[in-house]
Amino acid sequence: MASITMDNLCKVYIGGVKAVSDVNLDIADGEMIVLVGPSGCGKSTLLRMVAGLETISDGTLKIGDRVVNNLEPADRDIAMVFQNYALYPHMTVFNNLAYGLKNRGFKKAEIDRRVREAAQMLEIGQFLDRKPRQLSGGQRQRVAMGRALVREPAAFLFDEPLSNLDAKLRVQMRVEIRQLQKRLRTTSLYVTHDQLEALTMADRLVVLNAGRIEQVGTPMELYSRPATTFVAGFIGSPAMNMLPAEYLKTLVSADDLAHLPQSADLIGIRPEDLSLAPPKEGEMALTGELMLLEPAGAESHLHLKLAGLKDIFVARLPQVPDVSEGTALTFSLRRDQLHPFDSASGQRVA
Amino acid sequence: MVENNRWGNFFAHVILILGVAIVVFPVYVAIIASTHPPGTFVRGVMPLWPGTNAWENYTTAITEGRSRAGTPPIGGMMWNSFIMAMAITIGKLSISIISAFAIVYFRFPGRIFFFWIIFLTLMLPVEVRIVPTFQVVADFGMLNSFAGLSIPLIASATATFLFRQFFMTVPEELMEAARVDGAGPMKFFKDILLPLSITNIAALFVIMFIYGWNQYLWPLLITTDPDYYTIVMGIQRMVTGGDSEPLWHLVMATVVLAALPPVLVILFMQRLFVKGLTETEK
Amino acid sequence: MQTKRMTFSRSWLPYALLAPQVIITLIFFIWPSFQALRQSVYRQGDAFGIRPPQFVWFQNFQALFADPLYLNSLKVTAVFAIGTTLLSMSVALLFAVMVNRMIRSRDTYTTFLVWPYAIAPAIAGVLWWFIFNPSIGIMPYMLDMVGYNWNHRRDGNDAMIMVIIASAWRQISYNFLFFLAGLAAIPQSLIEAAAIDGASRMKRFWTIVFPLLSPITFFLLVINIVYAMFDTFGVIHATTEGGPAQATNILVYKVYRDGFVNLNFGSSAAQSVVLMGIVIVLTVIQFRYIERRVNY
Ligand SMILES: Nc1ncnc2c1ncn2[C@@H]1O[C@H](COP(=O)(O)OP(=O)(O)OP(=O)(O)O)[C@@H](O)[C@H]1O
Ligand SMILES: [Mg+2]
């Protein structure tokens, strides 16, 4: 077990693509860090730099107390679970799990013990003699996990390990991986682009954008106080509505916005913060014409047209209201739920 | 099929059966001829039905050959052919697979340059550099030796390309997983790449064995000692040795024996053969 | 050229892995070829060292292209290569189209048609030589019945026909397999669409199937020409030995004769260089084709 320290990590690919710039991150021992961000933002690159599968162009990487910049993957005491699992197709499940241990010169009895223990933990004991192609997707995923587990490494690295599974299995494995990680308390770095996965699994979340860290924090911190417009738009579904402050002033009373700093010229409103109840003390009102009602079982998404605004404004309600499209609806919203941003820098201002 | 017209199919079968008959005919004739006593070929037309001399002809061919014309027994020549074919095959496969491994899994100065050097072998078949190659082999003292028969032929651009092609389709993550698992380059090669390449190796083996067995010009150039004659080139000596008509019964027994090993290889490993053939040339 | 995104780093290992192949290539391919190039611009010295080899620019080549025997050999090679290629490719295409119609008997026919590939060109030559033997062969016997007097020992055309048949025979298997693979790869829906549009079977073949086979056909064309020019040495050497009267003296055979039997190294080297040029052109054509296909 170990902490991981990233100090100004940079990655420039041959050909000049700058995939990771100046990443500073301290991962505590036993912590589960989830890396999220849009496709191509450098998540895999960063993870692979930690694994030793990509060279580090600049900066320092420590695992525990050791600087590992120039160590081979095998010498970094990490284990990795790949998106496509990368199981050795010609080896049995047992040998897939045992291979890394054999290469490290473990005794046969110890290998046997560890493999069986991991297999039991992952409930793949009955498949040990099969080849990977004789397994289902979910079972292969477990074998890939098992290969990481048996090593009892200082850290687990996951690169979108669940993205090849169907939705139901994904939820199930998500829970299992998290439980397992909590039980073993192994430092983990987990890459995903599924924000639900990110929010539910992480001790702390790291949002990457174009190779830079946008924000680091617990899922709730990121959700309730996104530090940048990028994070605000990335975390939460449907995405946060963004309205120019100038425009909002024309819709609501000056009091409603008085508590916000002068520099806040862009205001974010989460769709789920709106409600159809009449405004109470400390709340403000917003009126729009209902363009489209999307019922989604237990909840509904309302697409609204606000007077004088081009973009569609979205509200999310925890029920399906009995309203018809074309009518004007008035929503209430707590004033302290407004998210103020400076549009030029994209930073939150209060 | 769009429409299964009966006459069309019947017609197709007729063409194919005729075609197969024509394709098989030369070998049929050879087998038949190899069962007749020498006297049959003196006059008249060659026989089309089996004779009774098969046993005698084949034992003569295998154990004696045509000694008077300086052709050694077929048994020895077949053995030489086998050694040469195996040496060429194994040599080609081993040096090609490691070259492809170097080219695909390493980045190093001169990589492209070496790739082109290997590629050049495609452009320089033995047939276009007969005399100087002979001189090189002679200078190395490799005339009349198995080394001389095989080593100069084991460079192979096609096999290298095929392995390279195959390695490129092996998922990147397999090598990465192996490295995380503590395998160095050669360990990865031995434990993972080699087992995954087995089908390709087998397919190439079939093709290369046939190639090696059927070598003609090369053994002709560098063997003068009958102890190193291979069967395919030996046939020519049987045919032209002496001014008289060839001893057809012995020639044809030799032909059958010379053709047998590669034909059996194709028949028993047809699937691998087809795979090897269509993929090496792509 | 591509590698894996992550590569091993061992400074000496890749060189060690490449060494056997590269060394053999240098010694047995590059060096002799270089020698051939060099010899082709020298006149050889005599055996006693009284007259040393002399640099003669392109005289060997000039002599070569002024030599009626060489020009004849060029012509013979062209006829032989074209004849062999056309014969084996057209027969193979016919077989492939017919076999491709079959469902149950497909594998059986394939088995019967592929094995001649295993037979060495020299042996193929001997087999047909036997069949065409003027005194006891079955073909002359049958031709005699229709009034044709076959004798490849005296008639150059007969000899040419014989070596073409022998060379093409073995190559049918090869072409057949490629055509069959090509036919199997044509989407059935295309043919069905044409059938719905009312195209007859013949028309469907010439307007849909054949054009779709054209990449394979082109590829085979090159391969067959290479085969006919270089791999058929055994056919000639084991049977006609270039005769009668130079009628089957193809280039490869001539290089061998002039170099090994007549010991005319300068001319043989010049001929080697010409052949190298031909192979290089053919290889480049073939490689461009491969590149195109890879890009698809
Ligand atoms: N080997 C490489 N050479 C050059 N550029 C690369 C290489 N690998 C990745 N890149 C580039 O680096 C950037 C980051 O890639 P990376 O794979 O880390 O993205 P990602 O966040 O994992 O995306 P995804 O969610 O799609 O997996 C991308 O712009 C990508 O095109
Ligand atoms: Mg990725």
From TrEMBL, chain A:
Record bears the keyword Membrane: yes
Molecular functions (GO terms): ABC-type transporter activity; ATP binding; ATP hydrolysis activity
GO CC annotation terms, alphabetical: ATP-binding cassette (ABC) transporter complex, substrate-binding subunit-containing
InterPro entries, A to Z: AAA+_ATPase (IPR003593), ABC_transporter-like_ATP-bd (IPR003439), ABC_transporter-like_CS (IPR017871), ABC_transpr_MalK-like (IPR015855), ABC_transpr_MalK/UgpC-like (IPR047641), Mo/tungstate-bd_C_term_dom (IPR008995), NA-bd_OB-fold (IPR012340), P-loop_NTPase (IPR027417)
Residue span, ABC transporter domain: 4-235
Gene3D superfamilies: 2.40.50.100, Nucleic acid-binding proteins, P-loop containing nucleotide triphosphate hydrolases
Entry-linked NCBIfam families: PRK11650.1
Family per similarity comment: Belongs to the ABC transporter superfamily.
Official protein name in the record: sn-glycerol-3-phosphate import ATP-binding protein UgpC
Lineage of producing organism: Bacteria, Pseudomonadati, Pseudomonadota, Alphaproteobacteria, Rhodobacterales
UniProtKB/TrEMBL annotation, chain B:
Membrane topology recorded in Swiss-Prot or TrEMBL: Multi-pass membrane protein
UniProt keyword list: Cell inner membrane, Cell membrane, Membrane, Transmembrane, Transmembrane helix, Transport
Gene3D superfamilies listed in its UniProt record: MetI-like
The ABC transmembrane type-1 domain, residue ranges: 78-269
Task of the protein: Part of the ABC transporter complex UgpBAEC involved in sn-glycerol-3-phosphate (G3P) import. Probably responsible for the translocation of the substrate across the membrane.
Subunit structure as annotated in this protein's UniProt entry: The complex is composed of two ATP-binding proteins (UgpC), two transmembrane proteins (UgpA and UgpE) and a solute-binding protein (UgpB).
NCBIfam families: PRK10973.1 (NF008210)
The protein, known as: sn-glycerol-3-phosphate transport system permease protein UgpE
From TrEMBL, chain C:
Subunit structure: The complex is composed of two ATP-binding proteins (UgpC), two transmembrane proteins (UgpA and UgpE) and a solute-binding protein (UgpB).
UniProt xrefs under Pfam families: BPD_transp_1 (PF00528)
Domain ABC transmembrane type-1 positions: 74-286
Entry's family note: Belongs to the binding-protein-dependent transport system permease family.
Its job: Part of the ABC transporter complex UgpBAEC involved in sn-glycerol-3-phosphate (G3P) import. Probably responsible for the translocation of the substrate across the membrane.
Coiled coil regions, renumbered to chain: none
Membrane topology: Multi-pass membrane protein
Keywords assigned by UniProt, alphabetized: Cell inner membrane, Cell membrane, Membrane, Transmembrane, Transmembrane helix, Transport
The protein, known as: sn-glycerol-3-phosphate transport system permease protein UgpA
